[in-house]
Amino acid sequence: PIHFERNLIKQQNTNLSVSINAIDGAAAGVSNVYITQIISGFNQSIQTQLQTYNHGNFVQPENIMTIPSFWYNKTLNYKTFMVPGILVLLVTMLSLFLSSMNIVREKEVGTLEQINVTPIKKHQFIIGKLFPFWVLGLVILTVGLIIAKVIFNVPILGNIFLIYGFTSVYLILILGIGLFISNHTETQQQAMFIAWFFTVIFILMSGLFTPIESMPTWAQNVTYFNPIRYFVEVIRMVMLKGAGFNEIKEQMSIIAIYAFVINGFAVWSYRKTN
Fold first, then answer.
1. Residues 6+ apart with CB under 8 A from 18
2. Residues 104 and 182 sit within 8 Å (Cβ to Cβ)
3. Considering Cα of 117, then 119, then 125, then 128, what sign does the dihedral take?
């Protein structure tokens, strides 16, 4: 502002106004952080100089400089943080949508009744229906990891087999949810709508786009029932932080319990006529 330096030297106090266009909230937040750091650094520097001058000591002041250091994403490249989360969404969405439309398609074409009267056991039929999608989910994970490493240069600091182990259990849970949806719908449109409805909620409350710590307390408590939350945490911990099994065993235990419960309900809800 006008007379900024004069007021600062004579009165040792002045005002500075900053106006930020906050239509783009993300850009405004980043700009605010940069401007705050610049003003804070200038303020510390000028205070040191004025204090030295008032005491009659003309020794060159030593300013304290703060240099931020980021552990897991040194260049603050957003792709490093987002690509693992997007990979989680791809594995989840494809596995859930395909499994939810699996048995309901048999209902539409009229072949489910024929399968029900065969000697095949209920668990054998369900395993035969879901196993291909379990394998497909691991294939999608493999392709995604290759693309993340080769194209986006996302680091994989942890054990890659730990990611596959967690994903294997996670896929059982997702396929169980899809089977449960398929058992209670009559058309593929119904199954797709319900699967998409839950997927949107899971994504928004997974911590992928909005940090869970910034959510209200009630929303943070709801996220404990969201399976995508745990997968996003684990894949980022393993890929970016090099976490081992001891660091993710809590998430692994929760997903395993959820998978057992959901698949139990899914198998129980499937009615087979002998």
1. 35, 39
2. yes
3. negative
d(CA 228, CA 174): 10
pTM: 0.74
Residue in this structure with the two tokens 């229906």, named with its chain if needed:
129
Q: How far apart are CA 198 and CA 180, in angstroms?
A: 13
Sign of CA dihedral 25, 28, 32, 33: positive
Q: What is the DSSP string of 146-191?
A: HHHHHTS-----S-HHHHHHHHHHHHHHHHHHHHHHHHT-SSHHHH
| pLDDT means over runs of 10, the chain (274 residues) | 77 77 72 85 72 54 56 80 91 90 78 71 80 93 94 90 95 91 86 91 88 85 93 92 92 94 84 54
- Return d(Cα 56, Cα 46) in angstroms, integer: 16
Task: Read off the amino acid at residue 123.
Answer: H
Residue 69: predicted pLDDT: 66
| Nearest one of 96, 245, 95 to 163, comparing CA atoms | 245
DSSP class of 243: -
- The Cβ of residue 183 has, within 10 Å, a number of other Cβ atoms equal to 20
In this prediction, residue 61 carries a pLDDT of: 47
Burial letters 139-167, b for 16+ CB under 10 A, else e: ebbeebbeebeeeeebebebeeebbeebb
d(CA 210, CA 63): 37
CB atoms within 10 A of CB 174: 31
